Fold this sequence. Notes:
Blueprint: H1 9-30, H2 35-53, E1 58-62, E2 67-72, E3 75-80, E4 98-107, E5 110-119, H3 123-136, E6 140-148, E7 151-157, E8 162-169, E9 175-182
Antiparallel strand pairs: 1-2, 2-3, 3-4, 4-5, 5-9, 6-7, 7-8, 8-9
Helix pairs in contact: 1-2
Amino acid sequence: MRTLPHRTPRTRTALAVSGALLLLLGAAACGADDVADQAAESAVERAIEDAASSEGVDVDVDAEDGSVSIESSDGTFTSGMGALPQGFPEDIPVLEGEILQGASSDGNGTTGWFVSVAVAKSADEALADAAAALEGAGYSEGDNSMAMEGLSYVQYVSSDWEVILGATDDGEGGTLVSYTVTPPTS
């Protein structure tokens, strides 16, 4: 018989907040236009924020612009739609396209960022263009990479940053390019 691991109240709260947050963002993506949907969104926002607050976590959810901010004694996380996250390193070139999400996380004195960009190119073309831009900015290819049909990841490094560059075919002639940026591991 398989047993589930014991979950602390903080873990249960985090899981509940995550689930409610996904529902909220899903409703926002579908376009809640009527008053009932807007009231439900507001209630879910308050429930998420109140549940997290009872655990000493400050959560701010804004369904209107799709932004989320979480602050606890362990660190901070912010996510938004349509723009690079605050503090994203200026020396990392990002492909031209529609920025779908920008996020940052700060914990234990380390900050990292994530950006996803939709581009109208194949995954191979997008990855090649993004790699050329990083190399032109002084980054070199690292040891970690992976490739399979429609999905590729390549590591680029500099003295300041490590970038995991990903490209995923969206199945409709476009590509989702992702940038995961952290301080170098060595």
